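note to self: dont lose this again. the chain is below, predicted strucutre after it. 174 aa total, dont forget to put it in the shared folder this time
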Amino acid sequence: MDMNQDDFSHDACEGCALGASRREFLRTGVAAALATLATLGARSAAALPINWVNALGVNGSTVSYPLPAADGVQIDKDHECILVRWQNEVYAFSLSCPHQHTALHWMEADARFQCPKHKSKYQPDGSFISGRATRAMDRFTLHQDGGNIVVDLAELHKQDKDPAGWHAAAIKLS
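---
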């Protein structure tokens, strides 16, 4: 079928909000696509950045890291620890998903953690969003020592079995 400019006219589509011509339709579509890209760009800019870190020191089962200066995610692969500063709090998590212990990934554009195996999703504070897991990310006990965060890798709190310990495993910053 041969289509021309008249086939896309306003008369051919009564009440259509897209405009009177193919050119206007394309202009509207391009403007919408650019607006979507701008929104995605703004969302990415607001996302928490990720850094790979090494512990400053190790003392038995404890490891220390510098207090993060800004909101973000730091991953120490050697100690399988995730350190997060988010909304004036600091958390330390096990790198493994609580469902089947697969290493979690940080999805920077979505500002959340996700398990690559079964797609369980978690907030930056470790709270469970959705997926096959049945609980939040596991948190380590931690405390602040001057300008450092000290994480005890021997004290892991599971949200479903130790809710009080899990909630307490956070440092509120002033």
